[in-house]
Amino acid sequence: MNYKRAPARVAGLTEDSMNHSESETAKHERAIAAIAQSTAHPVEEVRSVFSKEYARLEASAKVRTHLSALTTSNVRAILRGHAAAKKRAA
């Protein structure tokens, strides 16, 4: 059986985020910076969307090999949707 337990919280971090290696965290930060630069969205907004999307995908991931690349692609699409919605509203 596949039981999932709720991640432990320590000072705002989840157990899962604490298990990420420094190189993986650095890779995420580089992806976040690149997305922010190419989409002209603030880094804080990109980081928030990236974090939520990564957590969403990670929760059901059976293989984590391409999780960062998939997250990056999804975040770009999400932000394009945000930009299109803002243009329609204007």
Provide structural commentary.
With 90 residues, this protein is mainly alpha-helical. It has one domain: Helicase, Ruva Protein, domain 3. Helix content is 70%, strand content 4%. The protein has 4 helices and 2 strands, in the order ββαααα. A two-stranded antiparallel ribbon has the order 1-2. A hairpin with a 2-residue loop joins strand 1 and strand 2 (13-14). The longest helix is centred in the last third of the chain and has 23 residues, at 67-89.
Number of contiguous helices: 4
Strand content: under 5%
Oligomer classification = single chain
For the record, the count of structural domains works out to: 1
The succession of helices and strands, N to C, reads EEHHHH
Task: Give the termini separation.
Answer: 51 Å
How would you classify the helix and strand content by structural class? mainly alpha
CATH architecture: Orthogonal Bundle
Q: How is the biggest beta sheet arranged?
A: 2 strands, antiparallel
Identify low-pLDDT runs: 5-15
Q: Which sequence of strands runs across the widest sheet?
A: 1-2
Percent range for helical residues?
over 70%
The first-level CATH class name: Mainly Alpha
How much is the average pLDDT?
Answer: 82
Shape field: globular
Count of DSSP strands: 2
Radius of gyration: 15 Å
CATH topology: Helicase, Ruva Protein, domain 3
